[in-house]
Amino acid sequence: xxxxxxxxxxMQQAMDTVIKELGSDAVILxxxxxxxxxxxxxFRKPIMEVMVAYDPADVPAVRKLTSSSSADAADRGxxxxxxxxDRGxxxxxxxxENGxxxxxxxxENGxxxxxxxxENGxMERLDKRIDSIDVMLSxxxxxxxxxxxDIKSDYPEEVQKLLQKMIDNQVGEEPAHxxxxxxxxxxxRRPDSNAAEIMEHLILEQLGKPEPIMHKKYSQQVIxxxxxxxxGKTTTIVKLxxxxxxxxxxxxxxxxxxxxxxxxxxxxQKYADILDVPIQVIYWADELEAxxxxxxxRDVIFVDTAGKHPGDEQHKEDVIKMARILKPEDTLLxxxxxxxxxxxxxxxxxxxxxxxxxxxxxxxxxxxxRGSILNISWYxxxxxAYVTTGQSVPDDIEIVDVDAVAQQxxxx
Length: 412
Prior knowledge:
Layout (H helix, E strand, L loop, with lengths): L1 E7 L2 H12 L4 E8 L12 E8 L6 H4 L1 H10 L7 H4 L18 H4 L7 H32 L9 H12 L4 H17 L5 H13 L13 E6 L6 H15 L4 E5 L7 H12 L3 E3 L6 H7 L5 E5 L8 H14 L3 E7 L4 H10 L7 E5 L8 H10 L3 E5 L8 E3 L2 H10 L1
Parallel strand pairs: 4-7, 4-8, 5-6, 5-7, 8-9, 9-10
Antiparallel strand pairs: 1-3, 2-3, 10-11
């Protein structure tokens, strides 16, 4: 294994670079925010440092051939730079001066006037801009939907300000107004009370006391993890496995049923090897009983599942069958902290057939807002357990600090 360090503007850019250079089999060992050395960088925004482990043999061959791709393209008669320009031919639109877009004269003759690599680069930048605009618009319309009734509401001034802070921190319109109405009613009965203290108390009541997984001595616990695609279940399982194995000194095993996602098995296997934790891959639900038998000496068994899109009926049937065989002691539903309220409802409704589960909020480091935690708690009515705050294993997972969440929602 080879370890390599990357620096990027943010985690997304770092991940894009890692996947582009090393492929999807690379394993993130650690990530943190760092500041460049030097006085001139003292007041600049920190950058993301990511440490990655990879096997050179697993690096996609296309990366290794990059240096010779230009020569190969020339041998095949492909143009990788504007050769037409070297011959004095037209490579710019004739009507560019008056702002109109026309076809280059050379293009009409069937000649290539722009490098293919340059076109691909422009398309990639355009795709990123479109994605960025889409996220911005989604965030804008969601905020607009939350705030559309706020301006005309008749709450007392101090409650109105607290309501706006909740809205600004992405608390959904329904729970935000419900809390505001409750605070207003309390203030009417107790006009000398502090509105902020009342609202914080109401938020803490809603969030409830966190309920992390507690191992029962002399018993085996099976923990089933569920959640949509891309929520980070696999990395979360590794963090929990490391916590129970290294910190709590429990005998841990992992059953992986996620055979759909590219690189998921290899990523989980590498982490399991580092932690010295046995792992078994399951392709069919009928194999679960044998897997449990093979891990009969384990104190805690974590079961990783495939992430599916909301509304997948086959996934629902698979989960029901798995639960019937596994009889899990605990079930964790993973939802990303950056998920909008409408999407939270969709995810929760997808797993509405579950009677009992705990909430695990992932990717808290990818958003400055904490309203989604309140949204998830309010809509599900289920207890909170953990939040994940980064990619580091096993450090970046912790029991939900509800006091901090309430303060951040009201203070921003």
